[in-house]
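User: Sequence in, structure out. Go.
Assistant: Echoing your sequence, followed by the structure tokens.
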Amino acid sequence: MNKRYSNPQLWMLVVLRVAIGWHLLYEGIVKLMNPNWSSVGYLMDSKGWFAGIFHDIASNPGLLQAVDFLNIWGLILIGLGLVMGVFTRAATIAGIALLGLYYLSHPALINANYVIPSDGSYIFVNKNLIEMLALGVLLVFPTGRIIGIDRLIFRKTAAR
């Protein structure tokens, strides 16, 4: 792999992986530390093609509690996986799926005004889509095997 890409190119991919991981990990920890946090407001603010599904989740207390739990721990585990480079492929795929759900809940549509402030919407493109696409790039590069615990795991597996 190093024969095709320069060390700076590989290092920047690792930095990208860690930065996205840090963002997701931080978001999960903030939600975990706030005993009053719930996704109900975000889900009720949903617009677009799948808004009805997200509204239904928000209106079902048991389902909402499960979604909140999965969201918090998904963010934390995905973030840790990306930061530490452990089970990077699984963390990347899970991150793409989670960000995809965020995007479907709050798509960057023309004239869609959300109550919850966002970082910007540029006609179909927003931070969730960009971060999801960046994870797609990382999916095709085994950055965990360059710098990360995956390097140790897969070295031992390859030796057997």
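User: And one key feature?
Assistant: The chain has one domain: 7-159.
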